[in-house]
Amino acid sequence: MRRGAGLLALCLALVATFLTACSGDAGDDTVRLRVLTSPDLAVLSPLLGELKDETGVDLRLSHRTDAETKTPDRDRYDLAWLSSDRYLRLTDRNVIRGLQRTATMTSPVVIGLKPDVARELRARMPGSRLTWAHIADAAATGTVRFGMADPRHAGSGLAALVGVATAAAGTGAALRPEDVSCDRLRGFRSGQALTADTGPALVDTYVDHQDEANALITYESDLLALNASGRLDNRLEVVRPEDGMVLADFPLLLLNPVHRAAYDKVTQWLRRDSVQRQIMRHTLRRPVNTTVTRDARLREPIGNALFYPDQPAVVETLLAQYGDPDRRTTSQVVFLLDFSASMRGARTAALREAFAGLSGADPSASGKITRFNRAPDHGHRTAAFEPAADPNPSVPLLLMTDGENNADLSYAEFVRRHKALPAAVGAAIPTYPVHFGQADAGELRRAAARTGGRMVNAAGSPLSEAFKETHGCH
Q1: β pairing state of 31-37 and 79-81
Q2: What is the DSSP string of 371-409?
Q3: What are the phi and psi torsion angles at 134 (to 5°)?
């Protein structure tokens, strides 16, 4: 009997130990939930202790940089807390559809500009009102050099692309795949000076490299917090684009329905007016409850909400056309123009019309965003000087000629001179001959291949479309 009693006591002790490991200390009814979060939610950590004390729910946050773009693992996490779940709802509908979601706070994606740049841009605009089109145009001309989180990983970066592409399309509706123009996104991208995988990492990068960028595109809350941090040489002016913004609502998602009761406790606590005020103070994000008086810095109206894409193909196209923000883009194109007698008339008129759009004479939003940086007319000499000043250069030459070569270099002489260039310079100056008129396609192809470029066919399409290929738009 004593031996049996001992075994029974041992078994009870093991059971008690097991239960303690699952729910905390003996007598502790705390429910612990594993939460997948984006790094933007780390700022809420100071409130989690109070949440646990008042609800009995202990949220164990796991911050992942890919939380907003990778399907959450339901076997590993009970909840997901993201800045935005729009990407997942669009690209992985079968997994996300039907999940309980609760918005916890809001913040729009906006632009922070250094004061001198803000003044310069506002001086050009009637009523000093800035739009995504104006920002994209200023980026394409080099006036704005911005930092932005990688749109392949961060909702704020993707929201900015939606703003730029929507402005360029000019439809006022949700984007369709055919509305997304590569050259307009690449023009905008040419102004990107800094990037990071997440919003918080981007802020740190900007603080460390303030001399390399004069603008920061991210959530309104990040900019307001950064301005109040004392980490900046110059506070940033927060610009809320007049043509609309994408709003993040930081949803809490229930992945494991077994924990529905605990989830309800958490969401009810988070949406209390008193807690909403705390969230606002800690994060500078806007409360979801209209009964909560906003901080003075959050009283500026958000205005129009931009339509978020409703087709996965649109998001795929946006990301593909914008490209990898870590890779350098072409910032200068040198144009070699043939003004010989054979180019007179319609051919010269076509050149002028194309350059009118590329130089910004087209006043439309789409025309402005399409603008290419103007380059001095020094041909190979100008292009040859650029690589020496840039460790990773690419200065393409766009050769505009009808190919009726009566006095210019022969192909053999062109090859001889190209061989004479330093190897690093020759490799950095691809030539893009434009095939139109009576041009010899074979000779143009050989010249292009020799330099690492390619022949561009302008037949049957506007000449401006041919120019866009030099920026990688096909």
Answers
A1: parallel
A2: PPPP--S-HHHHHHHHHHH-SS----EEEE--S--SSS-
A3: -65, -40
Q: List C-alpha distances in Å: 11 to 23, 24, 235.
A: 19, 19, 64
Kind plus residue range of the DSSP H or E element containing 218: strand 215-219
Other CB atoms within a 10 A radius of the CB of residue 432 amount to 24
**DSSP secondary structure, 107-139, as one string:** EEEEEEE-HHHHHHHHHHSGGG---HHHHHHHH
Residue type present at position 6: G
Q: How distant is the alpha carbon of residue 96 from its chain centre?
A: 23
The pLDDT value recorded for residue 466 is 57
Q: Give me the torsion for CA of 378, 137, 195, 113, rounded to 10°.
A: 120
Question: What gap in Å lies between CA 118 and CA 135, rounded to an integer?
Answer: 10
Calpha distance 356→350 (Å, rounded) = 10
**N-term to C-term CA, the chain:** 86
Does an H or E element contain 360, and which? none
Q: Residue 37 is inside which H or E element, if any?
A: strand 31-37
Q: What is the pLDDT of residues 269-283, one digit of tens each?
A: 999 999 999 999 999
Higher pLDDT among residues 278 and 407, named by residue: 278
Instruction: Give the Å distances, CA to CA, from 71 to 60, 66, 81, 149, 260.
Output: 19, 9, 13, 20, 20
CB 189 within 8 A of CB 57: no
- pLDDT tens-place string over residues 283-320: 999 999 999 999 999 999 988 889 999 999 999 999 99
Q: How many CA atoms lie within 13 A of 126 on its CB side?
A: 0
Q: Structure tokens of 7?
A: 């075994």
- Beta-sheet strands, E only, within 259-349: 334-337
The CB density around residue 135, as the number of other CB atoms within 10 Å, is 27
Alpha-carbon distance of 299 to 290, in angstroms, equals 12
**382 band by pLDDT with thresholds 50, 70 and 90:** very low
Q: What is the pTM of this model?
A: 0.76
195: three-class secondary structure by DSSP: coil
